[in-house]
Amino acid sequence: MKKIVVWATAFGLLHHTVVFAQKRTYTLQKVWQKTLQQYPSLTSKKQLIEEQELKKELIKQQFLPEINIQAQQSYGSVQNVPGSFFPLPGIYTISGSNKPILEKTAGSNLYASAVLQWNFMQFGREQKKLDVADAAIRLSTNALKQEEWQMLSAVTRIYFAALSSKAALEIVAADTKRLAELFSLIQSQASAGLRPGADTLLLKSALLQSIAKEHEQQAILKTQLIQLSSFIGENIPFSDLDTSVYYRFQQTVIGTGEALQNHPYLQVLNERIRFAEAEKEAIKAERYPSVGLLAGVGLKGSGIQTDGSVNKGIAAPWNNASGNYLVGVGLTWGFSSLYQNKTKRAIAERVIASAKADRDAVKIQLNAQYASALAGWDEQRQKLAAANASFNASKEAYELYEVRYQSGLISLIELLQLQKNLQDAESNYVAAVYGYWNELIQQSEALGNLSLLLTAIQP
């Protein structure tokens, strides 16, 4: 019997031990900060932003002139049939010599060239591409903000669930300690013949049940702390959660419905619409032609001499070479793509209409969520007041009846019933506080700004 009392008392005091060494306290702000610093999905979104910025740089580089250089020296047969032909679509060439080659032979050939092409006039097509790139960067940036908001929303719910579990654990530990002290007193009185022995058995049963409940509550809290640790990347001991903040709340509405316009979901959908509109403008610009500057220089040599004879030496083309240059302006216009452009624009318009419909639907859902959160908060506020009054009344009643039991005016069964009523009132109060915080979280989620929760915490 004495071992049970000593163990139970030590177990209950374990959760109220003063830690003299410096310890960390995981506040809500600290949990948010660590989540944003290390969670992998946020890193993925940041890499996507950098990817879009690099794509924009690539588009800018397309404004620069394109220069192609090639050089070759070959050795092969020089037999040829004069004539003209199209070697590739859009290219026409003439080949041949006005002097016949009398014998079948082979010789060396040389060719080198450098060609510059600069499409300096594209009728706004390149600028429209840059607009699309900027829209993609803004969309990726808002997608990162949305991901951050989702992570903070999830970790906030787990954080308050852990606070609730620790608060419940502290209540159960206090109940265990109270029963252990009462058990020690009753056991001493029973040994002295002042109490019936059955009272010790009855109280022992209640004490063991309380210990079992404490173990159960510990398991729940451990699970929630593991979930919380997965977000912040650190293990969190029981003692590093401060439950005092759990009870420091202000009974006030946070934020206003006007803040809904800045909700991360709506911001992403708005940027999606702008991105689709930018793509539509870029598609429109595709129907215009491109005007470019063409310039080139070339060096051509051959082992075929002017009299038709062939010099088979490797260096012969260098001694029989000529250089040329070419400068011009070219226009490129794909007429067949004009009809396709019309279809592409129709597709882009459907994409824009779909994105706008999604945004309007989300607006309706967020407004309904906020209205529901306000209604739930008002009901929960009244429930919390009732639970608090019940808890205070049960606590006062138990203290009075505990004195009466020690004076022999009531039985142990009556006292244990009051103990059970006090436990229920304590649990109901903790649950009511948790429900109140949940309603505040619902409000901040509907408004898209979880930092509003900080305004509900009393200093």
From TrEMBL:
GO terms for cellular component: cell outer membrane; efflux pump complex. Pfam families: OEP. SUPFAM superfamilies: Outer membrane efflux proteins (OEP) (SSF56954). Transmembrane segments: none annotated. It is found in: Cell outer membrane. Signal peptide: none annotated. The keyword Transmembrane applies. It comes from the Bacteria. Keywords: Cell outer membrane, Membrane, Transmembrane, Transmembrane beta strand, Transport. GO terms for molecular function: efflux transmembrane transporter activity; porin activity. The keyword Transmembrane applies. InterPro entries: OMP_efflux (IPR003423), TolC-like (IPR051906). PANTHER family: OUTER MEMBRANE PROTEIN TOLC. Belongs to the outer membrane factor (OMF) (TC 1.B.17) family. This is Outer membrane protein TolC. It comes from Hydrobacter penzbergensis. The lineage of its organism: Bacteria, Pseudomonadati, Bacteroidota, Chitinophagia, Chitinophagales.
